[in-house]
Amino acid sequence: MDSLQHQIALMLVPQIGAVSAKTLVSYCGSAEAVFRASKRELYKIPGIGAAIIDSLAVSVEPLTRAEREIAFMEQYAVKAVFYTDPAYPARLRQCADSPAMFFFKGSSLSIFDLPRIVAIVGTRQPSEHGKSLCEEIVEGLQDYNVLIVSGLAFGVDVTVHRKASSIGIANVGVLGHGLGSIYPSQHRSVAQRMVENGGLVSEYAHDAKPDREHFPMRNRIISGLSDVLLVVETANSGGSMITVQYAERHGREIFAVPGRPHDAKSVGCNHLIKNERAKLAESAADIADRMQWGEPGKPPSSGKPMAGKPTQAQLFSDLTQDETALVSIIREKPEIPIDQLTLAARFTPGVLASHILNLEFKGIIRTLPGKRYIVSA
């Protein structure tokens, strides 16, 4: 079994990013094996150059820092989730740029298994109308049993987290710094409530500072964890638009709230809608209709069969018309890769991803390495 200390230490080695860390583990077999590998062996790994190999050669400091990180985790009930861990969120695992490890403080990692996850982002200086609309949409999403993800920043982010926590919606904040602090400090009380019914995520060690370059990077995690990205009030550049770019790369469904023409706080949203990069959303119902979530208030299937009933018979009876059609396509071949499935199903990437996750949770299909799908036996 791989050593947690070595997994954390690998993340702390200078020059090693998420992609190179996963490449190293893939070739060596484990994080611990990476540290044991000789320079000759490391040079044979594609994409691993002298800078990374030289950093690994001086590996005492990362291992020592990893010991301190584990002590912090034990003291503050923080979990470290490596990308090979079964608890690593399925949505995030499918993203090539996902972190090799992240730290989580919260209620339970199982919240990432919810069939419906919505990320909401926007300006740090929203209008009063924008704040009100945020709260209204979050309240509407309560009927669809979702997890909400945002970044705990000023403005739209904290408005979303505060409202979600107040009405009992599980919500997660992705931080641009370590879990040893909360930035901005004014949001500490909000963060404490989130931990009780949701949680906080960071790919950085607990003592990492809120450096400027961390925040654009954390936006890929906000997108990667979610099925849907909703943008509420944004300029035509900045953090929200960076998250949109990640969502496009990840094949997420993107929505934007329209605003008045020439309004500086809405120019980004209007641009996304006008150029068909995002669907117009004025309410939670607009998102639910597009994502085919069904009637509000209907809880998603837990994927667990009731005692005394045949598993497949019960599960197939729960399928929607679109899910049934998707299963029929997958069943036609021994296994089908994602590109062929997308072509045959003719769903948008976001809707297809949502259906695939629902079918996996219900135990109808299984995902094989390389994004290939089969019907479960």
| Distance separating the two termini | 29 Å
CATH architecture of the largest domain, please?
A: 3-Layer(aba) Sandwich
Q: Write down the overall mean pLDDT.
A: 89
Q: What percent of residues adopt helix (DSSP H or I)?
A: 40-55%
Number of helices: 18
- Tally of DSSP β-strands: 12
How are the strands ordered across the major sheet?
A: 1-2-6-5-4-3-7-8-9
Broad CATH class of the largest domain: Alpha Beta
- Which structural class fits the helix and strand makeup? alpha/beta
- Write down the Rg: 21 Å
Q: Report the biggest beta sheet as strand number plus sense, adding barrel if it closes.
A: 9 strands, mixed
Question: Beta-strand percentage?
Answer: 5-15%
Number of domains: 3
CATH topology of the largest domain: Rossmann fold
Task: Flag low-confidence runs.
Answer: 299-315
Series of H and E elements? HHHHHHEHEEHEHEHEHEHEHEHHHEHHEE
Which geometry do the CA atoms define?
Answer: globular
